[in-house]
Amino acid sequence: MVYEKNSRRAGRQQTSDSNIAHLQPQAPELEKAVLGALMIDKDAYAVVCETLRPESFYEPRNQMVYRAICDLSVDERPVDVLTVTEQLAKNGTLEQVGGPVYISELSSRVASSANIEYHAHIIAQKSLARQLISFAGDIETYAFDETSDIDELMQHAEGSLFELSQRNLKKDFTQIDPVIRNAVEVIQKAAANKGGMTGIPTGYYQLDKLTSGWQDSDLVILAGRPAMGKTAFALSLAKNIAADQQIPMAFFSLEMSNVQLVNRLIANCCEIAGSKILNGQLDDSEWERLDKRLPALLGAPLYVDDTPSLSVFELRTKARRLVREHGVRLIMIDYLQLMNASGMRFSSRQEEVSTISRSLKGLAKELDIPILALSQLNRGVENREGNEGKRPQLSDLRESGAIEQDADMVLFVHRPEYYGFKEDDHGNDLRGKAEIIIAKHRKGATGDILLTFKAEFTRFENPEYSALR
To answer: For the chain, what is the radius of gyration of the CA atoms?
Structure first.
């Protein structure tokens, strides 16, 4: 279904104004006052440029005047009655606004720009109200249409509302003192914790040493080629965090069903081969191990969701509920490229992935929790030679450079043994080993962590743990 919003907007405005006897939200006198103030105060545009856009104005001629003022300001030219008149003539809209007479009237209406910020806020609010009316009208029209696909309409509604909220999002300035106090509290908290841990511990000592745990509001990308074990690593992290430390977290699995996911988690926790979990052919020692270790998973504050082709809007709704109702402190997504931003239009898949990545980072900041998203790598790794050549790079992230840009941390899972390399350049044994490569770390150091990988159990372990058994 194709939703054509703009083509019906003018018609619906007439309906709202006439048929239902409701005037569209508007403040024409304030629009004129703001335009007049902009032409008498050279600093006024800087005050309102983040709040107002040409379409924020209700009257078409006021939109044209403000667009001319924007053009002048962008080119760093003075804004006054004469320059605005000249710019309107250049744009071919001078006669449409009422000629030089209307521009002179605007500038003569105000004596100062003292209240321009307050007036601009009212205009912006009226504009947002009109957009919401238009949005609601679109949804109402399609909801009455018996041929509409309601699920698709829901996706469209979520996408349109998300776009609307993003366009009107404005972040106010914060004086530095409260920010400093928050930063000092974090430092004091780190000092009180063993090992300087400020985030959620991963359960891997060397990784925690470099990262101080998963940090609130961070977007962490965990990437790797197929068969490297990135999902196994994510499940090992989930077991360490939810089962061992009882920290509430959510796992969104777009690739596997809940049962498949839990089967792999049982294999990880109980150290039973996945094939045996599948066919039930366990020997006595394995049944004993299952009975002994399974209670560690029962009651764990781990919430799983296997919604296929999850959209960023569905994720946002579910994540808010999980945080509000269950106190979830970490979200994992397996994996980013299987998500979509349905309800929004994109010229390419890269553009859609960029929107998804940006939305995940925004959600992490909004909820103030870390979000860990798995990601695929492109085939560039396979085309490079040698042990060093097979190591993934940031440029290998699949489909969008925006993933690298939005992420606070990028980790790669790399197993040299998969490519036939049994030793590193220093002669160290790489069999059964996996490298966790911290390729980007906005808040700290990068580096490599060596872990033991138990393929049959889809399990990652600290090397010290493996050596003790």
So the answer is: 28
Is there a contact between 251 and 302 (Cβ–Cβ < 8 Å)?
yes
Q: Which residues of 44-64 are buried (b: 16+ CB within 10 A; e: fewer)?
A: bbebbeebbbeebbbeebbbb
Predicted pLDDT of residue 456: 77
Active site residues: 255
User: How does DSSP classify residue 160?
Assistant: H
Q: What is the pLDDT of residues 16-27, one digit of tens each?
A: 444 455 788 989
The tens digit of pLDDT for each residue in 207-218 reads 888 888 898 989
| pLDDT for residue 60 | 92
SS3 141: helix
17 DSSP assignment: I
Tokens found for residue 244: 């061992």
C-alpha span between 316 and 323 (Å, rounded)? 11
Distance CA 41, CA 44 (A): 5
Q: Which of 314, 317, 321 is nearest to 339 (CA)?
A: 314
Strand 409-414 versus strand 249-253 pairing type: unpaired
In the predicted model, residues of the chain with pLDDT beneath 50 are 1-19, 467-468
User: Are 213 and 199 a contacting pair, CB within 8 Å?
Assistant: yes
Q: In whole angstroms, give the CA distance from residue 161 to residue 342.
A: 12
Report the predicted TM-score, pTM, of the whole model to 2 decimal places: 0.66
Contact present, 461 and 468 (Cβ < 8 Å): no
Bridge partners of 440, per DSSP, are: 410
How many whole angstroms separate alpha carbon 19 and alpha carbon 24? Answer: 12
CA atoms of 333 and 356, how far apart (whole Å): 12
- Give SS3 for 299: coil
Task: Give me the DSSP letters along 337-406.
Answer: GG-B-TTS--SSHHHHHHHHHHHHHHHHHHHTS-EEEEEEB-GGGTTS-HHHHHS--GGGBSS-THHHHH
Q: Which of 427, 421, 432 is nearest to 465 (CA)?
A: 432
